[in-house]
Amino acid sequence: MRPTISAIVPVFNGRRYLPQAVESVQLQSLPPAELIVVDDGSTDDSLAALAGLGSGLPLRVLRQSNAGQSAARNRGAEAARGDFLAFLDQDDAWHPQHLQTLAAALAGRPEAGWAYSDFDEMDSNGNLVTHRFLAEHGLQHPKTSLYACVAADLMVLPSASLLRKSAFSAVGGFDEALSGYEDDDLFVRVFRAGWTHVYVPQALVRFRVHGDSSSASERFLASRLRFARKLQGLLPDDRRMRRYYMRDGIAPRFFNSSLDDYVRACVARDWPTARLSYAALRQFAALRQAGARLRWKLSWLRQPRLFHLLVALNDHLPRPLRFVRNPMITLR
Fold first, then answer.
1. Which residues contact 127 (CB under 8 A, 6 or more apart)?
2. DSSP 8-state class, residue 298
3. For the whole model, what pTM was predicted?
4. Among 46, 120, 135, 303, who pairs with 42 as Cys (CB 3.0-4.6 Å)?
5. Cβ–Cβ under 8 Å, residues 113 and 83
6. One domain for residues 40 and 66
7. 40 falls in which pLDDT band (50, 70, 90)?
8. Is residue 204 within 8 Å of 156, Cβ to Cβ?
9. Is residue 265 part of a domain?
10. In this structure, what is the dihedral angle of CA atoms 263, 265, 267, 270, given to the nearest 10 degrees?
11. Distance CA 317, CA 216 (A)
12. 31 and 59 share a domain?
């Protein structure tokens, strides 16, 4: 039997990119049974971009006050009539074989709740940056342990996924309290619930990365800490099996991400973001039970302007004389 798939596109001020996203849905070799566009309180008349697209697909438009991407995805999933959910971000685009390939991966596997693929990275203008991003960066998939799911960023994109609706609903959908890491959070909960997943190494999606985007906004950093605390509650240490999820995996992962944010902010002289990142660093250092040596190194980051001057001085020294060649490595 032909699978019934609901395509769901959450939109917030996405008028520039929405036509390309919708056109990629229309061009699927296996068309979805319906297209649901959820307008999350846009102020740029985003839905006007749908006019004249001439989609032969049943189209439903849902509107809500701005509540965030997770809430918009959940709203679309609640309204979906299909057995499978295919989320597509407003600025991404599917390759024509996307739905057909992922549906085939789930066919005959009722225990599988999630199929996902590699993806191509494009810039804000739609130009190719990286082909098969996961393979290029050596990210190992599929995941076979819970520790592997939480010790590093998963990079399992909703736009590159096809989810069984029963699995999505069973775990409660996206966590609307998160504004960042909601994708990883959902994957972890589906994994823990016992659903298997299928990885397709083929790039089936074009994922847009905006050059001016930042992972160090106050809201994103707060979400990072909230997700870490949530994982801490879900995954207590298993001393018998010597699994120390927070100390050995989760806290070092987010410490390094926050350190990267801090260094980038200092280089850009973005002092407010640097201070936010430093506060996050201290919290993740405490969660990883940092020793005296790491705490001493952190003390050198207390003043972002001074750190910027030190990095500038270091960069002007001949390479053999540089006292720091990579701040990320020396501060781990």
1. none
2. H
3. 0.91
4. 46
5. no
6. yes
7. very high
8. no
9. yes
10. -150
11. 29
12. yes
- Structural domain total, the chain: 2
Q: What domain range includes position 295?
A: 218-330
Count Cβ atoms below 10 Å from residue 260 Cβ, excluding itself.
Answer: 15
Q: Is the pLDDT of residue 258 over 70?
A: yes
Q: What are phi and psi of 96, to 5 degrees?
A: -60, -30
pLDDT for 216-229, tens place per residue?
Answer: 688 899 999 999 99
Distance CA 262, CA 203 (A): 32
* pLDDT tens string 128-157: 999 999 999 999 999 999 999 999 999 999
Q: Which amino acid is at 108?
A: G
Q: Does residue 87 belong to any structural domain of this protein? A: yes
CB 159 within 8 A of CB 205: yes
What is the per-residue pLDDT across 147-199, written as a single tens digit (0 to 9) for each? Answer: 999 999 999 999 999 999 999 999 999 999 999 999 999 999 999 999 999 99
Asked if 223 and 204 sit in the same domain, the reply is no
Per DSSP, 23 falls in state H
Are 190 and 238 in a shared domain? no
d(CA 298, CA 300) in angstroms, rounded, equals 5
Are both 51 and 78 inside the same structural domain?
Answer: yes
CA distance 10 to 22: 11
The reply to whether 202 and 298 lie within a common domain is no
DSSP-derived secondary structure letter, 121:
E
Rounded-to-integer distance, Cα 328 and Cα 319, Å: 17
In a 3-state reduction of DSSP, which class is residue 306? helix
Pairing state of beta strands 84-87 and 112-122?
A: unpaired
Q: Cα 211 to the chain's mean position, in Å?
A: 16
**Residue bearing tokens 């160090």:** 216
The answer on 192 and 229 residing in a single domain is: no
